[in-house]
Specification:
alpha+beta, 17% helix
Length: 264
């Protein structure tokens, strides 16, 4: 709790007891598999990044962070297999895990629609488990109390014009899908926008404008530009981009229908 002092459960301040109880609703005592992940490049680099990421940190690899609240973490064993399509393999394994979960274990879960191993908070194709937790990651630059996020003046940079002069309130053309940004580079820390590859642009409006984005539980206005055949640009502001960027990794974005949610 000292790491994330503003941790919330169902919108209210968390206590150690309420946090523990919430995670217990996702614990599967009969299952030996606690997390399924992928390493798209080096397995050594991926595991090193995972173990070097402190609880509550946003990087270099914050996935599977529920494992780090377990006292048995040093006793766990990592199994791996080579595969030519890491994304497909991860999806298939998590799907198989869900399909073979016993009815007894399934009935104990708080969220029975997004099922995966205990520490898989994000279920590919379905979004985050409905865990009700918020403010569980701390910015690299600040540990001040979270508040509503005002539009950053740099958000308009991808469009080259002010937020007032563009079409506001654009909706996502699809919902309940998760798409990746371009893999990030160190240069992205100094950009005001996420680069969205052509394969992911179907989840965004076909015209430029302002969209609603939820980041770490706070709602803000961001700019969107489809890029005219190139990568699209989702303007989040330099301050936020400097915190989100983990070189070599994409940022995943969930289209909710009304807007978008940044998944960390």
């Amino acid at each position: 709790m000292s790491v994330c002092p503003f941790l919330a459960v169902d919108g209210g301040p968390a206590t150690l007891g309420s946090f523990r109880n919430r995670l217990q609703h996702f614990w599967l005592p009969e299952e030996p598999i606690l997390y399924i992940g992928k390493a798209e490049t080096s397995l050594t680099a991926r595991t090193s990044a995972y173990y070097s990421t402190k609880l509550g940190a946003t990087g270099p690899h914050a996935g599977g962070w529920w494992l780090k609240v377990l006292s048995i973490l040093p006793e766990l064993t990592l199994h791996y297999a080579r595969n030519t399509d890491a994304d497909a393999a991860e999806r298939a394994l998590i799907s198989q895990f869900a399909s073979q979960l016993s009815p007894t274990s399934r009935a104990k879960l708080l969220d029975r629609n997004r099922i995966g191993p205990f520490a898989n908070v994000l279920i590919p194709g379905h979004g985050n488990k409905a865990h009700g937790l918020d403010h569980y990651k701390v910015s690299r630059s600040t540990k001040t109390e979270p508040s509503s996020v005002s539009p950053d003046p740099t958000l308009a940079k991808p469009l080259g014009r002010s937020l007032k002069s563009i079409r506001a309130g654009l909706k996502a053309p699809v919902s309940n899908v998760i798409v990746p940004s371009q893999a990030l580079t160190p240069k992205d820390r100094n950009r005001a926008y996420l680069r969205i590859p052509a394969a992911s642009k179907y989840a965004f409006p076909s015209e430029p404008g302002a969209v609603t984005v939820i980041v770490r539980g706070a709602t803000q206005t961001a700019t969107w530009h489809p890029g005219n055949g190139k990568s699209g640009r989702l303007g989040l502001g330099i301050a936020l981009m400097s915190e989100l960027v983990v070189p070599g990794q994409p940022v995943h974005i969930e289209a909710t229908g009304d807007g978008y949610r940044i998944i960390e």
